[in-house]
Amino acid sequence: MKIILASGSPRRRQLLEQVGLRGFVVRASDVDESARPGLTPAEMVEELSARKAAAVVREAPKDGLVLAADTVVALEGAVLGKPASPEEAARMLAALSGRTHQVYTGLTLAGPGAVRTEHEVTAVTFRALSGAEIAAYVATGEPMDKAGAYGIQGLGALLVQRLEGDYFNVMGLPLCRLGRMLRAFGVELLSPDGH
After folding, report:
1. How many structural domains are present in the chain?
2. Domain with 61 in it: what CATH number?
3. Which residues pair with 80 in a beta bridge?
4. Which domain holds residue 171?
5. CA 20 to 30 Å from 137, out of 35, 53, 96, 184?
């Protein structure tokens, strides 16, 4: 079965390769990522991942399996997207400082005759950050293309005091859940023969 990743994220590609998936095709979906008002963060990521998968599955081969994901950061139920400016990034980081927030990722697998959508949530606690630390981190440019204005796989790791849940979810692809979902489509990442 040919796996098609409906994402241009280099982190998601790297994570798929990390668990042994090779030869997958990348076809980033070009869909409207605005969510309907009133959705919870969990509902939002599920809806958006399903929308991304639907956009790519139309062009997929009949035996293809499309994988789509969407990740958001939520603080007290309010979704923090990617910052539009360094000032907005600094405000987001100040809001997260010394507090616990949630990272939600919606996963959709769309294959021959079946679509499955689930989500994962991870609680992340930041240590208290000084204004100088926030300014220095923002100056690196790392926060600018990341939901919640940080990347745990980079310098953002220095901000995280505690994590409860799937670490890879915070990177944008919960691997444990993905493995279980793939198994339901006949893709076994841990087979008895080691392949």
Report:
1. 1
2. 3.90.950.10
3. 73
4. 2-184
5. 35
> Please, what is the Cα angle at 163 between 147 and 81, to 5 degrees?
10
Instruction: Evaluate whether residue 127 is within a structural domain.
Output: yes
CA–CA separation, 178 and 162 (whole Å): 23
pLDDT tens digits, one per residue of 100-126: 999 999 999 998 889 999 999 999 999
Q: How far is CA 123 from the centre of its chain?
A: 14
Residue type, 192: P
Tokens, residue 189: 């990442």
Return the active site residues.
70
Residue with tokens 């994962």: 120
Tokens representing 84? 């539009």
Q: Burial letters for 148-157: b for 16+ Cβ neighbours within 10 Å, e otherwise? A: bbbbbbeebe
Which tokens in the block code for residue 171?
A: 């990177």
**What is the C-alpha radius of gyration for the chain, rounded to an integer number of angstroms?**
17
Position 142 in a domain:
yes
Does residue 194 lie within any of the structural domains?
Answer: no
Residues 6+ away with beta carbon under 8 Å from 34 = none
Token code pair at residue 55: 């956009």
Residue 179 has pLDDT above 80, yes or no: yes
